[in-house]
Amino acid sequence: MTQEQQTRKGNAIANTYGRVNNLTSHERFRVSFCTDLDKSVLVNNFEKRGWSQVGSDDDWNFYWACVQSCRGIFSVDSGYRMNDNQMINHFPNHYELSRKDLLVKNIKRYRKDLERDGNGLAEKAESNWSNSASTRYLHLDFVPITFVLPADYNMFVEEYRKNPQSTWIMKPCGKSQGAGIFLINKLSKLKRWSREAKNAFHPQIAKESYVISRYIDNPLLIGGKKFDLRLYVLVTSFRPLKAYLFKQGFCRFCTVKYDTSVTELDNMYVHLTNVSVQKHGTEYNSLHGGKWSVQNLALYLEGTHGKEVTDRLFGAISWLIVHSLKAVAPVMANDRHCFECYGYDIIIDNKLKPWLVEVNASPSLTSTTVTDRILKYKLIDNILSVVLPPDGVPDVRWNKIPSQDALGNFELLLDEELASQEDNSHAHHNKNSRSLGNRWK
Ligand SMILES: Nc1ncnc2c1ncn2[C@@H]1O[C@H](COP(=O)(O)OP(=O)(O)O)[C@@H](O)[C@H]1O
Ligand SMILES: [Mg+2]
């Protein structure tokens, strides 16, 4: 930031908190933004706030960057040092949460740490999964059993042999949008794939690591079709953890009816809910884009399963999100210039248990329908009002406690700082103020 900008910022702050308003709007601090993504939902939001666009080499205050640019900025070699009036939309090592293999590794470690400390959260119980006895975590069993290949191959085979009837899903760690994913129901198929992958014709595949996860083969179906949830979670700090959930998430439906028969195992229109996959199908409806709002889902579930069950499900979803974040909080570089909006992919099974499938650090801002565009515009608008101080100028010295109004469609999931303040002042009597409300209505 230039000297002049600093002075204007100083004036703008004095203006906001001081008594005398002697600055014209023209003299106010003008935020400069920069973006790698040419998306109207972003640029329209920035321009609405009177911000001006600059290049990434210029003096920017707010950068909506792709993960590669962000990595570049934070790399030791770049020598880039951010000042107090700069913010960026990724944490330097977000991949601890968003890479499929690291997410599982961190959750496994989190559970082990709690177990070692004798924490009741890590309580285990005998369970019967597909007729074989195994122990599972009672409260932290929210990711399907997962192994990294090729590293954990032997452990996978051991698990596989316990339930040779079950189906597994192979996913490349470094890809997204359903690319490279396939299902297997026989070890021989995995062996064949492994041989072919090592083939000289596919040297790039041979180097890639994969996760192999238990396939949730009993998803909740609506109209006979599988769907998953895309929920947006905004994190403004990992230590203390400050996380917010956007109330307007949505369901993404498959276009073809769910069918577990072996002949359909390779039919991705049956098994993968990614819009990027489904939109190529002949049954894709571009008017609704195969989407349903979470509010609609809640109403449907209340009608079919009752309110109590529905509330319990959404409570379990919030629980899952909070613990996935707690699992990575100790390893995240908690840079105060950063915030991040994650796209959570969650599958609900037919016993109404939610499963965390993956977390995206760059959820799609592409709009496939009009409703989608409105929703994503609102999402960005609300993100900006939560991450920016009341005067709208990026400032890392701010305490990151937004007003209720600034939250918009976000609901507080957890603010460890506020929670400890409330504990200290015994304010927990007044539970309505900052506790988990019914955020889905
Ligand atoms: N363990 C699983 N059980 C059932 N379906 C799954 C599972 N993992 C992924 N899927 C399906 O595959 C889709 C893509 O998987 P995901 O992990 O989100 O990878 P990508 O990065 O390609 O989106 C999910 O949206 C979901 O529909
Ligand atoms: Mg996904």
TrEMBL record:
Domain of life: Eukaryota
GO biological process, one term: microtubule cytoskeleton organization
Annotated compartments: Cytoplasm, Cytoskeleton, Cilium basal body
One annotated GO molecular function: ATP binding
Keyword Ligase: yes
UniProt keyword annotations, A-Z: ATP-binding, Cell projection, Cilium, Cytoplasm, Cytoskeleton, Ligase, Microtubule, Nucleotide-binding
Keyword DNA repair: no
Subunit details: Part of the neuronal tubulin polyglutamylase complex which contains TPGS1, TPGS2, TTLL1, LRRC49 and NICN1. Interacts with PCM1, CSTPP1 and LRRC49.
Protein name: Polyglutamylase complex subunit TTLL1
